[in-house]
Write a structure and sequence with these properties.
Blueprint: E1 6-12, E2 16-24, E3 30-39, E4 43-44, E5 47-48, H1 51-69, E6 75-80, E7 86-95, H2 105-116, E8 124-136, E9 139-142, E10 152-163, H3 164-176, E11 180-186, H4 187-195, H5 198-203, E12 205-210, E13 215-221, E14 224-231, H6 235-246, H7 250-260, E15 273-276, E16 285-288, H8 289-314, E17 327-330, H9 339-347, E18 351-353, H10 374-406, H11 413-423, H12 427-442
Parallel strand pairs: 1-6, 6-11, 12-17, 17-18
Antiparallel strand pairs: 1-2, 2-3, 4-5, 7-10, 8-9, 8-10, 12-13, 13-14, 15-16
Amino acid sequence: MENNKIAVGLDIGTTKIVAMIGRKNEYGKIEVLGIGKAKSLGVKRGVVNNITQTIQSIQQAVDEAESVSGQRIENVVVGIAGQHIRSLHHSDYITRSNADEVIENNDIDDLVNQVHKLVMLPGEEIIHVLPQEFKVDSQADVKEPIGMYGGRLEANFHVVVGQVSSIRNIGRCVKSAGLSLGDITLEPLASASAVLSREEKEAGVALIDIGGGTTDLAIFKDGIIRHTAVIPFGGNVITEDIKEGCSIIEKQAELLKVKFGSAWPGENKETEIVSIPGLRGREPKEITLKNLSKIIHARVQEIIEHVYLEIKNYGHETQKGKLIAGIVLTGGGSQLKHLRQLVEYITGMDARIGFPNEHLAGDSDDILSSPSYATAVGLLMEGLEKESIEVFEEEVQIDNTINSEELLENQFEEKIIEQPKQKSKSFFEKFTERFKEFLDNAE
């Protein structure tokens, strides 16, 4: 039943928009049926600034994915990033009316809903409320409080906040492109599920996703997300600097960066020179690779230092917060030559490049396992995860109806049927529902 369920991840990035259709094969790996990508013209630093162009780009990517896969796309999982995202820590508690009953999902829901009522700055809305550890009565560091007894349930939360208007604009673009919004999630979280292993999340790891317009950071420790941040610089500012520094056009700057760029200036000789054709009958320009890598190095160093500051803010230098698995770099910007060495040099932490191939079926196209598709693969995984939960719940409900016929005389009957309904809503689904209402009211 689960096998034919397909899902679609839509990554609305600053440089490209990617639609990825896939399903799980019998081994639980992801089989990508089709992928479509379009140049993203209406997005700047992760924020939509031209609705019409963004809608066109989304449609173009979706059409391409549909024609490759032969599937119709209706429902998509969208990632959200951008310079307006910030995160904060918050603790909250509820006092339960009946301490003699075990803690259930709805107690956690009550606690999460209470956090959702936090007063934000004007124009901001809570995107995710992610529980870290719980405390039941006076017992601290509880990972999973469900099934325990206790009168007071307390938790530390990681709360991700974003600008209402930016989120609404993304929703608007998706709707106007003729799609419905299945789920919305933070892009660093999506990339993390695509490229990090469970061991890394346990040991402590920082995922740095260098995109075109923004660099996203997600820090995990003990298997739990501890810190997220979006830094408003990415690969595009490097291109911009090359363009200014060498007085060439953007297209040439981008090509130079990808083909000859290196983040480590020491390794190019003075004699290595690239000749770039001049515009319309002008003389060609000669650029030394040493100069090119100096320009790139200066900008990349700035980006890494920004990120490293966030890692320090999280508390990496404390004994408890040490990130044993170091840093994982992903996103299109992570393909820059010698970037890994520079990151290790600046932060003193181990680094590796993260490829999203761990969850993909063995015969997948090599292009898909490129770091620039990490977010799209993560969003697709998120969508498939949601599908399988729904399928599982339908089955649970069917089973319970059969049980309840046998138990007709029994007083437990009502409880049995109702339980799966209580369990069914995850935090993300709640958020999506709230978000959809919010979009409908806005129109």
